[in-house]
Structures are given as structure tokens and as C-alpha cells.
Design brief:
alpha/beta; Auxin_biosynth/cation_transpt; monooxygenase activity; 675 residues; FAD-dependent oxidoreductase domain-containing protein 2; glycoprotein; endoplasmic reticulum; six-stranded antiparallel sheet
């Protein structure tokens, strides 16, 4: 009967009218709103479907105890808005300065209600096209050779209204609770429903299943009123300061580690949850046993007939009965609404809670279906910040740029500079860019070299996992080699078992930069674009294949890579070696002398001095150059910039005799060179 009703509903749906949009976004959480912003700014036809009456419905419920673990650093000592986003983990990207999260909360760890208000304002102030109270319950494909991707996406909501889209952006996050089924699991309370009133736990003994932030958040709330709390999970606790992964246990929630290690009754245990069983006695107490003890048990027998581990091992760790058992195992992606034609498959191993996607965030099985936000975290799970707002705001922008190139012929944004600005461009980005900083090892700046290395094209925050596809994904060409600028931690510095506070943990000398442990810039040089095969065969834990040359900028305690000798000089020499050119800057006087003494001028002189560009000469500048050893100490003379406004300008011959630093090159010299 159920199959017949479902088939009839599909037939009815097939005959109903479809509302068409180029882009459909499912979910009005942070990633859905971020995608909507970029689509609206580009003038695209889109709609966002949200099942609730307001955006960000997840944050209306979670975290249960209302304190976010995403930092809200309001002061950095700098006014650079791009730099400040490195330490603002809650704001979405927009042009509206009112929509910075620091205007919504002064707390370092904000209340979740502030996030709800922020997302509501983000949607309303930017007039994003969100269709509320619309739950998409079924998604399937319709083959059509005229469609962008060879098919359309057909969506059906709870009212049987149908929609047709050329491209589907899934931004639903992971909201289905992870549940482990074992004998007695019906006695377990879920994180999503358990009481958050500490008084309800007064004088009780509690067992918590799980060891993530939700588990420790729950324990932190009741730590002061319980007899004791035990926490069990299949893996050891992972501390975020050791793994450098913000999804692992944060210090704000780790009070139970203190009470455990300082012997205040609470404790942590490791074990496979699927091997457990819970038995309830006549007094309502919950006893922990093992599944295999119950395999041959008469289910109608009482608690007295059940073999408990302490019957064989009288000091069994969890022999004391519990009053409550709470499940805090996180969430997983909802696959139930997707028809088999989309082939939305879960990942493998510890990524099975996420759908399988490519490094471009597109489904591995269905072209035109992109996964955004927390659900896309399989690309950088336990590596970077792609599962959190301060990470996926940048990956969402990257997906938008990929779509703009694919469907609308808009190439990836880039800027062309003369080669003399190469060092400055890199230094500026590694000191300011928030996308590189937050999505380390995942997003990178790409520098495409022009012919003869006279200029370069700069692309910001491109997903390195699809570097081999750069030309087709961005609409930019890379025939003359490229640099890749990325941020990385040291290879052996992060891990659950790592001591990140050991003595001499930091490197300070430029010659040892490759041994840097903390986050630092790394520049890869390739004479040609890597192939897909090279990407597949890259060394384990390397974000990129082996380059023709690589340079590490030494880590810096202040994350300020502007030191002339430690940071800039080694970088410039690396770039010069790769390009076989001179990237130094010169005073006009030096360029003038080079014109007489060299067959080939350095790029700075060719692109500046010869084109009547360069530093304005003055007595103060000349004295500074002399004191720095950059110029010979000529006798003081009058300079054009120091003369009174009514004085006559000296002739070019006079300037030459005075050894002045000219504003423009000698025109007769340029003419002579042309002849």
C-alpha cells in the first residue's frame, strides 16, 4: 500500500507545474545564506529553501547550553578588515560593515541566540531570496541534454509543490543525531532532548557516551552537582591545541579533564559502544554490561540472571550503577530525501557522516550538485576549518567562482602585476589574507607567470585539490609556470599524542624555516601545471605534488611576516632563483648608471625608470640612501623637489652634472637607446 501511494504521489507530482530557478539552495543556515549573497551579488536567478520560519534554525536549538565555541575577537590592534577576519570566526562575508558579528555580541565565546539574530539580519538587510516554511522532502533528476549539466534537479516540498533547477547547492549541514543501537539503548537520553537544568542532575551518577565538544559541554553543565560523571568513547580524547583542529575538544569545555586527572571521582574510558549493553534494575538504576553476556540470556528473566562484568572481574571500571546515560555522539548528513538517481553516497571510515564530494565540493556522482558548509567537511576533515563558519565562508565563495566560470563564462577574479611586484604581492597576502589563514592547506593563492616572467596574474583562494583542473575551472591559462602560496603547519607537529609545548618548539632562523612547526606560509614553484596523476600520487599528507622548488617562510610568533632579513630577503632570493631574474628595487640614479654599464637592465629599471616612473628625488631621500650604503656620497646639491616654486627648472645636462636622482629618465638617453 505504501509503495502504491508513493507511486501515485510521484505521478501526481510529474503532472504538476514546476517552478524553475537556475540555482536552488537547500537550507538557510550560514552556508546557505553565504551562497545566496554571492548569487545575488552576481545577479543570478536563485531561491533558498528553509524548512523553518527563520534562518539558522540549527542555532535556535544547538548548542543546548547556548555557548558557542567560535571565537569573537573584537580587538586585534589593527584596522585592516581582511586581517581582522582571521580572528572573527562568526561573521559571514559581505560588503555591509553592519554585518560584522562583533556588533551582535561582546562575548569572546558568544551566546547562540546572538548567532540567530545575526543570521536573521543577514538575510533581511541584504534582502536575500529565502522561501521559509518550505521543507524539501524529495530530490530527483530529470535527464535533458539541453540542461547545463545534462539534467535538471526536481525538488518536491511538504505541500507537493515542485521545483526545477539547473544547479543544486546543498547547505543543510549535519543535523541527524548519531545513534548507536545496542541492548538497552532505549534507556539512553539524547543530547538533543536531555534537560539542561543542572538541578535535575543533583546527586546523580551519570554516564555520557561520546567525547566531543557536545559531550564535554554537557558534562561541564552538571559537573558541580553530580556524584560523578563517567565518559566513554571508542577513541581517546583529542585536544584542539594539540591537533590544531578546531572541532576537537576546546579548552572552554574541558573542566572534566581536571577533575579526572586530579582524582575528583570523574573519569574517561575507552571502549566500543556497540559492544555495550545496559540493564535496568528494579530500582531504576542502569548497569553497564557487555553485549555477549546477553546473547544466551532468557529475555524474560530479571536482572539477577544477567551476568555483569564485575561478576568475573570485581574491580570492573563501570561496576557502579548509573542514574542516567546520555548520548552525545554528534550529527550526520540526512541522505533520506535524495532519490537513488542522484547517487548521494556516504563517505568511508570516519567520513561516513558526510556525503562523498570532490575537492571542488561537487558530488562525485552527480554533476551540478554541490555540497556547502558543514556537510562539505569531508574535503578537509580534521585538517582545516571547512566544517565551520570561519572556514566554509571562503569555500562557499570558491564554489560560487567555479560556477560563475562554468555556467556564465566569468573567469576567476585575478589581477595582473609587473614582475617587480611579485615579492610585495606575496608578503601582503600572507600577512593579511583571512581565507589562506583559516583554510590552511586547502585554499591557496595561485600566481600565473606571463611569458619571459615580465608579469604575473594573481588568483586568490583557489582549492588546491583541483589544481590540475585550474585552466578549465577558472578560465585562466598557465603555460609559463606558476607559484602556489599556501599556509601550513609543520608536518609532525599536530596530533592527539603530540606535546605541542615542548622546549624549543619554535624555529627562529630563516635557514631552518623548513622545520617550522606553527602555521607559516609555504611557496611552491612549478614549471608547468601539475597533472591529475601527479595530484593523486602526491606524498601522504602533502597538499600538493612535489614541486620544482619550495620555500618556507619561517614561522613568526606574531604571525607578522614583514621582517626584512628573516622573511622578505629569503623570499625574494627564492623567487629570483626560480625566475632567473633580479627582483630588487633601485633608485633612479642606479638605473641611470646601469643603462651605461649593463647590456640588460633589471626589471625594476625597465618597468619603472625607462617608462618615466620611479622614486622622486630629494635631499632627504638621497641622504638616507647614502647612509644605507646604497649610493655614493656626492656633494650636496639643489634638488628639483627642494627648489622654491618660482625657480626655473634646470636642464637635463645640469641634472646630470649635479648627480641628482631624477624624477624621470633622460629623454635623450631613451632616444639614443631606441636608435
Amino acid at each position: 500500500l505504501g509503495l502504491a501511494l508513493y507511486a501515485s504521489s510521484l505521478c501526481a507530482a510529474s503532472g504538476a507545474a514546476f517552478l524553475y530557478h537556475d540555482y536552488c539552495v537547500i537550507g538557510a543556515g550560514p552556508s546557505g545564506l553565504q551562497a545566496a549573497y554571492f548569487l545575488q551579488q552576481a545577479g543570478r536567478d536563485y531561491v533558498v529553501f528553509e524548512r523553518s520560519h527563520a534562518p539558522g534554525s540549527f542555532f535556535a536549538l544547538y548548542p543546548r547550553h547556548r555557548k558557542l565555541i567560535s571565537i569573537n575577537k573584537r580587538y586585534t590592534g589593527k584596522s585592516n578588515s581582511e586581517f581582522n577576519l582571521r580572528h572573527d570566526w562568526n561573521s559571514l562575508l559581505s560588503h555591509d560593515r553592519r554585518l560584522l558579528f562583533r556588533r551582535y555580541s561582546h562575548d569572546f565565546f558568544p551566546d547562540a541566540d546572538a548567532m540567530v539574530r545575526y543570521l536573521e539580519d543577514f538575510a533581511s538587510l541584504l534582502k536575500l531570496r529565502v522561501q521559509y516554511n518550505t521543507a524539501i522532502i524529495h530530490v530527483t533528476l530529470e535527464r535533458d541534454g539541453q540542461a547545463w549539466n545534462g539534467h535538471y534537479f526536481l525538488l518536491t516540498d511538504q505541500d507537493r509543490q515542485n521545483y526545477k533547477c539547473s544547479s543544486l547547492l546543498v547547505a543543510t549541514g549535519t543535523w541527524v543525531p548519531n545513534v548507536v543501537n545496542f541492548p538497552g539503548s532505549e534507556y539512553v537520553e539524547g543530547y538533543e532532548t536531555v534537560s539542561i537544568n543542572p538541578e535535575d542532575f543533583a546527586g546523580q551518577t551519570v554516564l555520557i557516551l561520546g567525547r566531543g565538544n557536545s559531550a564535554f559541554e554537557t558534562a561541564e553543565n552538571i559537573l558541580g552537582v553530580t556524584n560523578f560523571i563517567h565518559m566513554v568513547s571508542r577513541s581517546r580524547v583529542r585536544l584542539s591545541w594539540a591537533t590544531h583542529y578546531v572541532g576537537d575538544l576546546r579548552a572552554i569545555n574541558n573542566g572534566l579533564l581536571d577533575t579526572y586527572q586530579l582524582k575528583s571521582l570523574d573519569g574517561l574510558l575507552e571502549g566500543n559502544l556497540e559492544d555495550l549493553a545496559i540493564v535496568k534494575d528494579k530500582k531504576g538504576k542502569l548497569h553497564i554490561t557487555l553485549r555477549f553476556y546477553l546473547e544466551n540470556r532468557n529475555t524474560s528473566a530479571g536482572i539477577d540472571s544477567v551476568t555483569l562484568p564485575q561478576d568475573e572481574l570485581d574491580n570492573f571500571a563501570t561496576r557502579a550503577p548509573y542514574d542516567r546515560v546520555i548520548r552525545c555522539l554528534g550529527w550526520k548528513f540526512d541522505f533520506s530525501i535524495y532519490n537513488r538517481s542522484l547517487r548521494m553516497m556516504p563517505g568511508k571510515g570516519n567520513k561516513k557522516k558526510y556525503p562523498q564530494i570532490k575537492p571542488s565540493y561537487e558530488s562525485r556522482s552527480t554533476r551540478g550538485l554541490f555540497v556547502l558548509g558543514t556537510a562539505s567537511h569531508s574535503v578537509d576533515f580534521r585538517k582545516s576549518a571547512g566544517g565551520f563558519i570561519h572556514g566554509f565562508r571562503y569555500t562557499t565563495r570558491a564554489v560560487h567562482r567555479l560556477l560563475e566560470n562554468r555556467h556564465h563564462g566569468v573567469p576567476w577574479p585575478s589581477t595582473v602585476y609587473p614582475i617587480t611586484q611579485l615579492t610585495n604581492s606575496i608578503i601582503k597576502r600572507v600577512n593579511e589574507a583571512s581565507g589562506l589563514y583559516q583554510m590552511f592547506s586547502i585554499l591557496a593563492d595561485i600566481i600565473l607567470l606571463r611569458e619571459n616572467a615580465t608579469a604575473f596574474e594573481y588568483l586568490e583562494e583557489y582549492p588546491v585539490g583541483v589544481l590540475a583542473e585550474l585552466e578549465t575551472q577558472t578560465g585562466r591559462k598557465a603555460p609559463n609556470g606558476l607559484f602556489v602560496v599556501i599556509m601550513e603547519y609543520g608536518r609532525n607537529f599536530s596530533g592527539a599524542d603530540k606535546d605541542v609545548f615542548y622546549y624549543n618548539r619554535a624555529v627562529g632562523e630563516a635557514q631552518h624555516a623548513w622545520q617550522s612547526n606553527f602555521l607559516h606560509p609555504v611557496i611552491y614553484y612549478y614549471k608547468r601545471l601539475p597533472t591529475e596523476r601527479e595530484m593523486r600520487l602526491r606524498p601522504p599528507d602533502w597538499p600538493l605534488p612535489r614541486p620544482d622548488a619550495v620555500h618556507h617562510i619561517v614561522e613568526d610568533f606574531l604571525t607578522d611576516w614583514t621582517a626584512p632579513n628573516a622573511h622578505i630577503l629569503p623570499l625574494r632570493r627564492f623567487l629570483e632563483n626560480c625566475l632567473s631574474t633580479d627582483l630588487r628595487n633601485f633608485f633612479a640614479e642606479s638605473c641611470f648608471l646601469f643603462a651605461f654599464t649593463r647590456q640588460k637592465l633589471p626589471p625594476f629599471c625597465r618597468q619603472g625608470y625607462v617608462r618615466m616612473q620611479g622614486l622622486v628625488g630629494s635631499e632627504g631621500l638621497r641622504r638616507h640612501a647614502v647612509e644605507a650604503g646604497l649610493l655614493e656620497d656626492y656633494a650636496p646639491t639643489d634638488f628639483p623637489g627642494d627648489r622654491p616654486p618660482d625657480s626655473r627648472e634646470g636642464s637635463q645636462d645640469q641634472l646630470l652634472r649635479d648627480h641628482a636622482i631624477p624624477v624621470h629618465p633622460l629623454q635623450h638617453l631613451v632616444n639614443a637607446k631606441d636608435e
